[in-house]
Design goal:
The protein is mainly alpha-helical and 508 residues long. The chain is 52% helix and 5% strand. It folds into four domains: 98 residues, no CATH class; 143 residues, no CATH class; 128 residues, no CATH class; 86 residues, no CATH class. The protein has a three-stranded antiparallel β-sheet, covered by helices on one side. A three-stranded antiparallel β-sheet has the order 4-5-6, covered by helices on one side. Helix 12 runs antiparallel to helix 14. It starts with a strand and ends in a 7-residue tail after the last strand.
Length: 508
Amino acid sequence: MKRRYGALVIMGGVLLCGCDSRPVASVQDLTPGVDVSEGPPRPREGERFESFRERWNAWVEALPAEDRMQPELGDAIERFRQDREIESGELLSDWPPFVLSDARPWNGHWEHIDHVHKAYEEDIQNLIEVVQRPYLGAPIPTTNDDKDRFDAEIPGDWVTAHSLDSVSPLRQASIYLRADAVYLAFAGEQGQAIERFKLLDHLCQRTLELPGMTQLLVELALRMFLTEAMFALVEYNPDVFSDDQLSAMQSILHKQLSTDYRRVFEFMQFVTREDWRLQFHSVDFARTNPDLRAFYHEAAKTYTEGYFSEFLPVIMKPELDDDIPLALLDHQIGVQSRMLDAMLIDLAADPATERMPRIHFATHKHLSGRDASRFVPVFVDTGLWRSQLGFIHRLDYQITNHIVALAIHRHRARHGQWPESLGDIDPDTLPVPATDLYSGEPLRYSLAGGKPRLWALGADRDDDGGRRGPEAAVFKWFALDEWEAMSEEERDEHDGDILLMDPRKGQP
């Protein structure tokens, strides 16, 4: 989604401000007074975004070069894209940069992986040096950073090409580090593979240094890359890693469960308010209001009719009325604050006992009937928050289940055989309860043909004996009242279990 009013642009949740009418100090002027030891700045109560941007960029400028990933991260990634020929029985010059990410012992690239890895070894070490730095250190760009390009329609790749969110470099870095971990694990260097996974976790944490919406999406994607890569390796060959190494993997995953997403939503609210101020006050309000209504009505259709509607079962679809004016800015902000309070409660909620998400009640109270048209800006942002809340719950759910599955593998590493039941697992190998977060019931476990089967009940909260349901449906969480209000036909769409360890997977 792209918005442009006056001097401000928001693309994908990233705010880019232009000139302010008030004189401001330059970054260079502010730098001497910055204490970088305090870490990244946080917005202050009542602070305007222009002020925060100045403090943020001054902090970035004051960071020692050796503590910042940017701008060297982009250069480190670019080295992987240089054309090269690798002799290993055939020319592999057409393979980079994908050969590393595709290299697995179960496909045709494995016979060449030693040669390919050798050709990229120096580049990998250079990338590691950059990624292990303590800060991403990306400045917040402004419209003045690229005046020529902002004179016309803003290219969709502008944010990607700049350093605020660094979508491409961060994703590419994760791909190369993950592939290197896979290589090391199967080359007998499991300890080094664990170190690569720790670097990937560090990269995930740095992504949320400035916690905007785009950064949240990237962080979730990187966490998924990391957890899936670790578990796929263990699943492929249960004997590759020792008990200590499996424990280290559990620690990485357990640490991710403590990621602070509250500040992400709070920062998104901070950015949105600045966006609204410029939109509402860019020209005379009486003339701007119809334009704003038209813009937000179009944006609302994205959530009520498009892809996001699948993630918004409790958000009422507003009956948009072009004749109803938008509420005043202060009222928009007031309702947005109440919606955010509800969102943060849902963020910390226990899915198994939640009768109805708080956002449901807040939506009915503040965004129903006539108010839905008056507060369409709040509706749009709340819809986006709600979808991201679903993604966070799902990923935390998967990570928790992976931790339990790794405990089962640790039992095999310690005792030379799979446990007969979850009760046989040594308590010190299980840092989280073996509980289905959606239903509150214990996870189900059995041995099938001498191999472990682990499953959760899924959205329907009944045990189907480990019969796999449609993945997109069973991972979707419904609060208790939401599920009970569904018809039998709707419930049938979510029938089946979530199979966490499948005895048919892997190649022992």
